[in-house]
């Protein structure tokens, strides 16, 4: 009974991954493949990729955007999870509204936000102008000015990614909240604890296992994130929103360098593997301490 799922995973997951890893050790230039073939070059593709300033910039952007998404989405998710967990009239409607982004595929969400953040036709710009907060349109996706590693396009795309992943985070945290016995909150009330004390000394410690799993999942998906960055900006302007997955895609399908694209994919695999290994090690250590 397990065989169909295993075969499906192998054909669509493991086999392409193994094939891509194999290409990363070959010279696989699609334009020249008929003349030069695909000779073995060892680690040369990895050396070329890691010495490419665009790829190094994409690594920085990947971890910066992933960190911002995790920090913002989990902070907001904790608040919204408490809102969904509380008892009040109209809670069902609020839950549906909070989970609404989950029903929108990332591709569709990216297209919608591209229109909302369009420089000339953005309703957000129109609203800010009507409120007198800005004098000219904000170029949410095309402004190339920077403040260190930050830029308006990077923050805009990061916000969209956080919005799209927020329902998953809220549901995850809500499940953790529902597993906390209410007796602990009642005991905190008897001891004179306020909302902050209950959150600091009851909720947060008991949510640590849930938040640990959540952060690990968000790190893995964040490092390999592709669709929203590619659709909204294509990695631009001037590589300000370029991430590793977009760099890999552009190398393969814009420049036809499947070897460099595979090497970039190999770096992504190694980084996610390190995160998984550290998480598993931490879990095993916690189990031994018990």
Structural summary, described in words:
It is a single chain. This protein has 290 residues and is an all-alpha fold. It has a single domain, classed as MetI-like (MetI-like fold). The protein is built from 13 helices and two strands. The chain has a two-stranded antiparallel sheet. The radius of gyration is 23 Å and the shape is globular. The model has no long low-confidence stretch (mean pLDDT 90). It is found in: Cell membrane. It is a multi-pass membrane protein.
Keyphrases for this structure?
MetI-like fold; 290 residues; membrane; single chain; MetI-like_sf; mainly alpha; transmembrane; transmembrane helix
Provide a concise account of the structure shown.
The chain has 290 residues and is mainly alpha-helical. 71% of the residues lie in helices and 1% in strands. It has a two-stranded antiparallel ribbon with strand order 1-2.
Estimate what percentage of residues fall within beta strands.
under 5%
CATH homology group: MetI-like
Number of domains: 1
Biggest sheet: strands side by side, in what order? 1-2
- Envelope shape: globular
Radius of gyration: 23 Å
CATH architecture call: Orthogonal Bundle
**Spatial separation of the terminal alpha carbons:** 36 Å
Number of helices: 13
CATH topology: MetI-like fold
Q: Count all strands and give the number.
A: 2
- What helical percentage do the residues reach? over 70%
Subcellular location: Cell membrane
Family: Belongs to the binding-protein-dependent transport system permease family.
Membrane topology: Multi-pass membrane protein
Domain ABC transmembrane type-1: 59-279
């Amino acid at each position: 009974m397990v065989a169909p799922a295993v075969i499906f995973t192998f054909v669509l997951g493991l086999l392409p991954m193994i094939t891509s890893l194999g290409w990363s050790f070959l010279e696989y230039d699609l334009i020249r493949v008929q003349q030069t073939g695909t000779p073995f070059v060892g680690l040369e593709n990895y050396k070329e990729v890691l010495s490419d300033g665009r790829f190094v910039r994409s690594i920085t952007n990947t971890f910066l955007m992933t960190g911002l998404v995790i920090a913002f989405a989990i902070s907001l998710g904790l608040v919204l999870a408490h809102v969904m967990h509380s008892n009040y009239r109209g809670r069902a409607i609020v839950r549906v509204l909070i989970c609404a982004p989950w029903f929108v595929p990332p591709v569709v969400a990216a297209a919608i936000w591209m229109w909302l953040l369009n420089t000339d036709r953005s309703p957000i710009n129109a609203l800010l102008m009507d409120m007198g907060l800005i004098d000219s349109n904000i170029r949410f996706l095309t402004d190339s000015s920077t403040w260190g590693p930050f830029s308006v396009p990077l923050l805009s795309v990061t916000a969209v990614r956080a919005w799209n992943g927020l329902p998953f985070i809220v549901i995850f945290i809500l499940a953790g909240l529902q597993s906390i016995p209410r007796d602990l909150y009642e005991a905190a009330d008897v001891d004179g604890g306020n909302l902050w004390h209950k959150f600091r000394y009851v909720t947060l410690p008991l949510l640590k296992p849930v938040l640990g799993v959540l952060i690990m999942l968000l790190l893995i998906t964040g490092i390999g994130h592709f669709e929203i960055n590619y659709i909204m900006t294509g990695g631009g302007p001037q590589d300000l929103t370029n991430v590793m997955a977009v760099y890999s895609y552009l190398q393969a399908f814009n420049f036809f360098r499947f070897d460099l694209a595979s090497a970039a994919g190999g770096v992504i695999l190694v980084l996610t593997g390190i995160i998984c290994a550290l998480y598993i090690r931490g879990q095993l250590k916690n189990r031994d301490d018990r």
